[in-house]
Amino acid sequence: MKRINRMAAVVICISFLSAASSAHAADSTLREVFEDAFYGAGIGALVGGAILAFTNKPADHLDYIGYGAASGVLAGTAFGLAKSARALAEINNGRVRIAVPTIIPNLVESPASRQTTVMWHASLLRGTFN
Asked: 91, 128 in Cβ contact below 8 A?
Protein backbone atom coordinates (compact mmCIF):
# COMPACT_ATOMS: atom_id res chain seq x y z
CA MET A 1 0.00 0.00 0.00
CA LYS A 2 2.84 2.35 0.87
CA ARG A 3 4.47 1.72 -2.50
CA ILE A 4 1.22 2.48 -4.36
CA ASN A 5 0.88 5.79 -2.50
CA ARG A 6 4.44 6.74 -3.42
CA MET A 7 3.94 5.84 -7.06
CA ALA A 8 0.69 7.84 -7.16
CA ALA A 9 2.46 10.86 -5.64
CA VAL A 10 5.25 10.61 -8.21
CA VAL A 11 2.78 10.35 -11.11
CA ILE A 12 0.80 13.35 -9.83
CA CYS A 13 3.98 15.43 -9.43
CA ILE A 14 5.17 14.53 -12.92
CA SER A 15 1.79 15.37 -14.43
CA PHE A 16 1.72 18.77 -12.67
CA LEU A 17 5.25 19.57 -13.82
CA SER A 18 4.57 18.52 -17.39
CA ALA A 19 1.36 20.55 -17.49
CA ALA A 20 3.14 23.56 -16.05
CA SER A 21 6.03 23.29 -18.49
CA SER A 22 3.72 23.03 -21.50
CA ALA A 23 1.52 25.95 -20.43
CA HIS A 24 1.46 28.85 -22.85
CA ALA A 25 2.46 31.77 -20.66
CA ALA A 26 2.41 35.33 -21.90
CA ASP A 27 5.83 35.88 -20.39
CA SER A 28 8.51 33.55 -21.73
CA THR A 29 10.50 33.94 -18.51
CA LEU A 30 7.94 31.96 -16.53
CA ARG A 31 7.94 29.21 -19.14
CA GLU A 32 11.74 29.00 -19.06
CA VAL A 33 11.78 28.77 -15.25
CA PHE A 34 9.22 25.95 -15.33
CA GLU A 35 11.18 24.12 -18.01
CA ASP A 36 14.41 24.43 -16.03
CA ALA A 37 12.63 23.15 -12.91
CA PHE A 38 11.18 20.22 -14.86
CA TYR A 39 14.54 19.27 -16.37
CA GLY A 40 16.16 19.68 -12.96
CA ALA A 41 13.63 17.26 -11.47
CA GLY A 42 14.38 14.69 -14.16
CA ILE A 43 18.14 15.01 -13.79
CA GLY A 44 17.88 14.94 -9.99
CA ALA A 45 15.75 11.79 -10.11
CA LEU A 46 18.32 10.15 -12.40
CA VAL A 47 21.15 11.10 -10.05
CA GLY A 48 19.17 9.79 -7.08
CA GLY A 49 18.58 6.53 -8.95
CA ALA A 50 22.26 6.28 -9.83
CA ILE A 51 23.20 6.67 -6.17
CA LEU A 52 21.06 3.61 -5.42
CA ALA A 53 23.65 1.50 -7.24
CA PHE A 54 26.16 2.26 -4.48
CA THR A 55 23.96 1.16 -1.56
CA ASN A 56 23.82 -2.32 -0.02
CA LYS A 57 20.04 -2.68 -0.19
CA PRO A 58 18.67 -0.41 -2.93
CA ALA A 59 15.04 -1.32 -2.15
CA ASP A 60 15.42 0.25 1.31
CA HIS A 61 16.63 3.57 -0.11
CA LEU A 62 14.12 4.40 -2.87
CA ASP A 63 13.57 7.77 -1.24
CA TYR A 64 16.91 8.86 -2.77
CA ILE A 65 15.06 9.26 -6.08
CA GLY A 66 12.56 11.65 -4.47
CA TYR A 67 15.29 13.60 -2.70
CA GLY A 68 17.19 13.88 -5.97
CA ALA A 69 14.09 15.08 -7.82
CA ALA A 70 13.29 17.64 -5.12
CA SER A 71 16.86 18.92 -5.13
CA GLY A 72 16.74 19.10 -8.92
CA VAL A 73 13.54 21.15 -8.87
CA LEU A 74 15.11 23.64 -6.46
CA ALA A 75 18.36 23.84 -8.42
CA GLY A 76 16.53 24.11 -11.76
CA THR A 77 14.28 26.86 -10.47
CA ALA A 78 17.25 28.80 -9.08
CA PHE A 79 19.09 28.37 -12.38
CA GLY A 80 16.05 29.53 -14.37
CA LEU A 81 15.57 32.60 -12.19
CA ALA A 82 19.25 33.51 -12.34
CA LYS A 83 19.27 33.02 -16.12
CA SER A 84 16.22 35.22 -16.68
CA ALA A 85 17.33 38.16 -14.52
CA ARG A 86 19.80 40.35 -16.39
CA ALA A 87 19.74 43.68 -14.52
CA LEU A 88 18.40 45.14 -11.29
CA ALA A 89 16.00 47.40 -13.19
CA GLU A 90 15.02 46.88 -16.81
CA ILE A 91 13.05 49.35 -18.89
CA ASN A 92 11.30 47.85 -21.90
CA ASN A 93 8.62 49.75 -23.87
CA GLY A 94 7.88 52.04 -20.94
CA ARG A 95 7.51 49.20 -18.42
CA VAL A 96 9.95 48.90 -15.51
CA ARG A 97 10.86 45.44 -14.21
CA ILE A 98 12.84 44.92 -10.98
CA ALA A 99 14.84 41.68 -10.60
CA VAL A 100 17.98 40.24 -9.06
CA PRO A 101 20.93 41.12 -11.31
CA THR A 102 23.20 38.49 -12.80
CA ILE A 103 26.69 38.75 -11.31
CA ILE A 104 29.39 38.04 -13.89
CA PRO A 105 33.07 37.47 -13.03
CA ASN A 106 35.68 39.08 -15.33
CA LEU A 107 39.39 38.29 -15.40
CA VAL A 108 41.48 41.45 -15.71
CA GLU A 109 45.21 41.35 -16.42
CA SER A 110 47.45 44.18 -15.30
CA PRO A 111 50.23 44.65 -17.89
CA ALA A 112 52.56 46.42 -15.45
CA SER A 113 52.53 43.78 -12.69
CA ARG A 114 51.49 40.81 -14.85
CA GLN A 115 48.89 39.79 -12.29
CA THR A 116 45.40 38.55 -13.01
CA THR A 117 42.59 39.68 -10.76
CA VAL A 118 38.92 38.78 -10.69
CA MET A 119 36.50 41.67 -11.11
CA TRP A 120 32.77 41.12 -10.47
CA HIS A 121 30.28 42.89 -12.74
CA ALA A 122 26.52 43.34 -12.23
CA SER A 123 24.19 45.36 -14.47
CA LEU A 124 22.09 47.80 -12.48
CA LEU A 125 20.06 49.32 -15.30
CA ARG A 126 19.23 48.05 -18.77
CA GLY A 127 16.86 49.58 -21.26
CA THR A 128 15.75 49.56 -24.85
CA PHE A 129 14.93 52.79 -26.58
CA ASN A 130 12.81 52.96 -29.71
From this structure: yes
Contact 91, 123 (CB under 8 A): no
Task: Answer yes or no: are the C-beta atoms of 104 and 118 closer than 8 Å.
Answer: no
Handedness of CA 101, 102, 103, 104 (dihedral sign): negative
Along the chain (130 residues), what's the average pLDDT of each consecutive run of 10 residues? 65 58 55 89 92 88 90 88 68 69 75 79 64
* Cα 20 → chain centroid: 15
**Residue 49: how many CB atoms within 10 A of its CB?**
15
Paired with 120 in beta bridges are: 105
For β-strands 103-110 and 115-127, DSSP reports them as antiparallel
